[in-house]
Design a protein that fits this description.
The chain is of the alpha/beta class and about 475 residues long. The chain has 2 domains: about 20-185, Chitobiase/beta-hexosaminidase domain 2-like (Chitobiase, domain 2, 2-Layer Sandwich); about 190-464, Alpha-Beta Barrel (TIM Barrel), CATH 3.20.20.520. The chain has 14 helices and 18 strands. The chain has an 8-stranded parallel β-sheet, with helices on one face. Helix 2 (about 55-70) packs parallel to helix 4 (about 140-155) and helix 10 packs parallel to helix 11. The longest helix is centred in the first third of the chain and has 19 residues, at about 1-20.
């Protein structure tokens, strides 16, 4: 048993290091040029600009807590107070201090500027007037900065799973960051996330006991976990739950934190399926009840049109079932056309400017195989067979799509011929082989994985 525990610890530690995104940049003793993060009972302060993204400031405040957990000393949190030897945190084009440093050529951001979610971490001498030396964490965008903050937190000893898996914080009273340019490049997959599904009774019961339900207090913990793991995407819990309806703060905080929200393969235009029951929808049938469905989708989309979303289009039957006995291609094509008109009316811009996906899940793949197509800007979300085997990949030599391809994968499944909940039955080696195949075939726009109750899936989630 001891040997097994040791082996698991080694595997988890090695995967955690790879997931971090950088080789180690922290050491326990001073070397020339290094920055004293924690030394001789003192810690570096944290400095941000007043105009920085609120989500970045939230991450910076979490770093303040993390440093105190590690060192026993709480850093000062400064807003535009240029003094001492601080950790300067900011986003290109959003932070007054960072932009001043770029303008004065104190930092070179040419290898991250304009890139998606990229980060530079660097020790800088005399970055601005009044500061002799600083550790600078700069992002190409909001999440680029946030990932840099959580990268540092991880490297000083705070696991992304400190809350969800009670991973102990590593205590340390001497931490230095080595000199040099430490760059976290744009991720290989643009949108990377988890789907909380089949969540009753375990997660739903626990969330009610701890938080009163799937409300903003619960989701703040989920958002933070996703960002600490360098993810950016979430399909929220949907068994009798409705993310945008259960707590009006849910979508607001998701956008503030920097987590992109979507809905599952059978929940079009941001509407949770349970909302149809709540608001006494009629027949879930577009041939017989098109106007009520259009109004339902329109009012749902209006709630979050200013938030960062990926909009699910298409339609399946009521309760995660096929829409019809056959393949009603003409009907589904009309549904997609009407949905995109709703997106244009609500967003006041071309539909192609709003990220969308069409999930080729179960019988929906038959529509695609029989020739149905959606506009080129829509991401085609390819799926596994619920047992971890990819059903379809882009054809070799096929012309690239503007919206690209993605993958919907399963660690948890409820349905025929049998359920598998609470235990991931897909070996890590199989997950690696199947997702590597997806990447090699350029299915790299979205990766989303069904993790069920979240709690039993820490190891495969971090690996994914």
């Amino acid at each position: 048993m001891k040997k097994l525990t040791l082996l698991l610890s080694i595997i988890i530690a090695s995967i955690g290091l790879n997931a971090a995104g950088l080789d180690p940049i922290t050491i326990n003793s001073y070397v020339p040029g290094s920055f004293p993060l924690v030394s001789k009972g003192k810690v570096a302060s944290i400095l941000v600009s007043q105009n920085e993204w609120s989500g970045t400031i939230l991450a910076a405040k979490n770093l303040q807590i993390d440093i105190e957990k590690v060192s026993g000393v709480a850093p000062a949190f400064l807003i535009e107070e240029t003094k001492g030897m601080p950790i300067i945190i900011g986003t290109i084009g959003k932070s007054k201090i960072i932009d001043e440093m770029i303008s004065n050529r104190r930092i070179n951001v040419s290898d991250i500027a304009g890139h998606w979610e990229a980060t530079l971490i660097q020790v800088v001498k005399n970055p601005v007037k009044g500061i002799d030396s600083a550790l600078v964490i700069v992002g190409s965008d909001k999440r680029g900065t946030i990932y840099g903050v959580y990268e540092l937190a991880y490297q000083i000893g705070v696991s992304p799973w400190y809350y969800w898996a009670d991973v102990p914080v590593k205590k340390n009273n001497s931490i230095f960051v080595i000199a040099g340019r430490h760059v976290i490049s744009s991720p290989a997959v643009k949108y990377r996330g988890i789907f909380l599904n089949d969540e009753a009774p375990a997660l739903s019961g626990w969330s009610k006991k701890q938080f009163g339900g799937f409300n903003s207090k619960f989701y703040e913990k989920v958002f933070e976990l996703i960002l600490r793991l360098k993810g950016n995407y979430l399909w929220p819990a949907m068994w009798g739950n409705a993310f945008n309806d259960d707590d009006k703060l849910n979508p607001i905080l998701a956008d503030e934190y920097g987590v992109v929200i979507g809905t599952s393969h059978h929940e079009p235009l941001t509407r949770a399926h349970d909302e149809w029951r709540r608001y006494k929808g009629g027949k879930w049938n577009y041939e017989q009840n098109p106007q009520q469905l259009r109004d339902f989708w329109k009012t749902g989309l209006q709630r979050v049109t200013d938030k960062e979303q990926i909009i699910t289009i298409g339609m399946r039957g009521d309760g995660d079932e096929p829409m019809s006995a056959g393949t009603a291609t003409a009907l589904l094509e009309k549904i997609v056309k009407d949905q995109r008109e709703i997106i244009e009316k609500v967003s006041q811009k071309p539909a192609s400017e709003t990220p969308q996906l069409w999930a080729l899940y179960k019988e929906v793949q038959d529509y695609y195989d029989k020739g149905m197509r959606v506009p080129d800007d829509v991401t085609l979300l390819l799926c596994d067979d619920n047992w971890g085997n990819l059903r379809k990949l882009p054809k070799v030599g096929e012309a690239p799509r503007k919206g690209g391809y993605g993958i919907y994968y399963h660690f948890d499944y409820v349905g025929g011929p049998r359920n598998y909940k609470w235990v991931n039955t897909n070996p890590i080696q199989k997950i690696w082989e199947q997702m590597r195949l997806a990447y090699e075939y350029d299915a790299n726009q979205i990766w989303i994985v069904n993790v069920g109750d979240l709690k039993p899936m820490e190891f495969p989630i971090e690996f994914f």
